[in-house]
Amino acid sequence: MTQIVPVILCGGSGTRLWPRSRATQPKPFLPLIGEDTIFEATLARCASFAAPVVVTRAAHLSHVEAQLGGATGACIIVEPQARNTAAAIALAAMRLPGDAVMLVCPSDHHIGDPKAFAEVACKAAELASQGWLVSFGIEPTGPETGYGYLKRGEPLDHGGFRTAQFVEKPDLERATAFLAEGGYAWNGGIFAFSAATFLDELTAQAPGIAGPLREAVAKGREDGARFYPDASAFAGADSISVDYAVMEKTARAALVPARMVWSDIGSWESLHAARDKDDEGNAVNGRAELVDCRGVLVESDGPRVSVIGLEGVVVVVDGDEVLVTSMAGAQKVGKLGGAMNQ
Amino acid sequence: MTQIVPVILCGGSGTRLWPRSRATQPKPFLPLIGEDTIFEATLARCASFAAPVVVTRAAHLSHVEAQLGGATGACIIVEPQARNTAAAIALAAMRLPGDAVMLVCPSDHHIGDPKAFAEVACKAAELASQGWLVSFGIEPTGPETGYGYLKRGEPLDHGGFRTAQFVEKPDLERATAFLAEGGYAWNGGIFAFSAATFLDELTAQAPGIAGPLREAVAKGREDGARFYPDASAFAGADSISVDYAVMEKTARAALVPARMVWSDIGSWESLHAARDKDDEGNAVNGRAELVDCRGVLVESDGPRVSVIGLEGVVVVVDGDEVLVTSMAGAQKVGKLGGAMNQ
Hints:
The first copy, chain A, is α/β, with parallel strands linked by helices. Chain A is about 30% helix and about 30% strand.
């Protein structure tokens, strides 16, 4: 059986769940759904595989180490700066045996059916061992315009398909047409490939990343479970996503269909969708009293929140910030002064 | 010219503006509109008359004395307990010369046109000197169902009218009919009558108040500007409103029409209506950022409030309580657990 090594990406610092998520305490490290943090839940659903590699930045290191808990044998790669996903994944690939299958997981996604995730991961790993670069093709539940889409090509082993096309975020009309046509999946940024295959493709397709990173790793230093790439070499690497750098260019792109109650928790609206709700569609975390409310999300870190007569509204209380927004307005949270200046 | 003595009633402890208004810091003592508190504004618009008599309770005494400011010569009557308006007004009447005209003012109303108020007060005082018990008949601005109505009878001097009828809070159909018919006014609980006339009527119509209060005043004690009625005698007085006890029963009821931009600030919705607003109808007190909002009221004692994409919503942050309600839902604020247990 192939060794599956989870590679957990902890580099982001999103503002879309501000004010709960802040630069100093970003989304992965918050218990937004259930009692575990999103990062802890990500580790938990990978626990049946090998010890993980966590790629993060110094700013988040204390959160990562505090929450790694029982993940014994975990390695932590500390990036000198944020350099997008291609570089983060490449660092992990260069620290692993060539035949290891990397299971690349963002640390800020929610997956409601971890058993299904593990099953899909095993199929993807089989294809990865055959030399494919595999994307999880997440079954669309609606014509979302916020995700890229993957188009299925010819069938492969283990229920997989060649990826016929990577489609950039479509407009609503195109997204609706994709769902009507069938054979499209969301690209959720979850991948499986062997370290050697990935590095071969990276070298071929993105030498501006592969070269500097080889130097950064060669000159890097270990400190217990931590590995620090050389900062000055690292700074020379291009900052682009793994999709642009590798996945969209390789001739070996494949996908495995994934039906696993997935959410990228990319807004308060999608967090509300992912949460357990009462009969009126309300979801509460913290002290709250709701009267005549439907589809309301309340998140409070202390003060009691009383809500009366509202539908489809989000209320977030965090420290000295209070956010009240319509579900649709939640898309604009990152543009608020508070979120910009956090 | 008749001596007009403002009698300011500070006995209430309403919960309808919870959580900003609390048992320990009720509505009159808060700067809800402009920089002055509602009590201070009440004093200010009576400043052209004689020194006021303030009727309050021990719980509010510190607020009253702190905010009396320049109201030199003011007397404070400290009620042993809340005993409704008839008793409060009777205490003041018993402490005043019989020919003094009492101008009875709740301390928790907003009047946007203080000059008009003073003019109406002078007309009411003239009628009071003639032996009438005069209500301010507030010109209705809509078919409100939350107020009692006064029906005009035959004309009197000084632009006044006999009060033909006191009408209990009507349903919407009746209120709409009153406005269509004309000749009706809101009963806002503002009155003018001479002390002697009031006490004569009280003795005749409500001996269960007049008797115990005479004893409470006779056995009371002075302490500087404060007067403390005897608690045990006071406890024997009936607890009913001045409307029920006297105004609805007397044959000498009159009204003067009053058009003075009045509000009882009886809910967050009516506070929003009384506030200065921007072009989108938003009113903000405290740190706030509003995006795509209309008709929103924000009141914060500290934390920044960010609101996106909402219409007709009230957000109040006060200490450890956060209230978010639709304008219509604001009627239910007093029934929330927080407001009940404050």
